[in-house]
Automatic annotation (TrEMBL):
Job description of the protein: Negative regulator of the heat shock response. Negatively affects HSF1 DNA-binding activity. May have a role in the suppression of the activation of the stress response during the aging process.
Top-level taxonomy: Eukaryota, Metazoa, Chordata, Craniata, Vertebrata
Protein name, per record: Heat shock factor-binding protein 1
Subcellular location: Nucleus
Keyword Nucleus: yes
Amino acid sequence: AAPAEPTMAETDPKTVQDLTAVVQTLLQQMQDKFQTMSDQIIGRNILFFKSQIDDLEKNIADLMTQAGVEELEGENKTPAANKS
């Protein structure tokens, strides 16, 4: 039993170092994957909200046209131009 103990003592630090290295590598890979996924989600959200804003702007422009806001603005400018 005595000769086995020094062998275990010699291999323990190496085993611990190997295990530590493996765990650190796995954690780094997981962090990289989460970062990639996070970047993709943020990118998709930005594109989604840009699309929503574009649609909203178009709908507002259409409503303004239907309400005659553009014609009113044109009419308001015409008398001002005539007064000058």
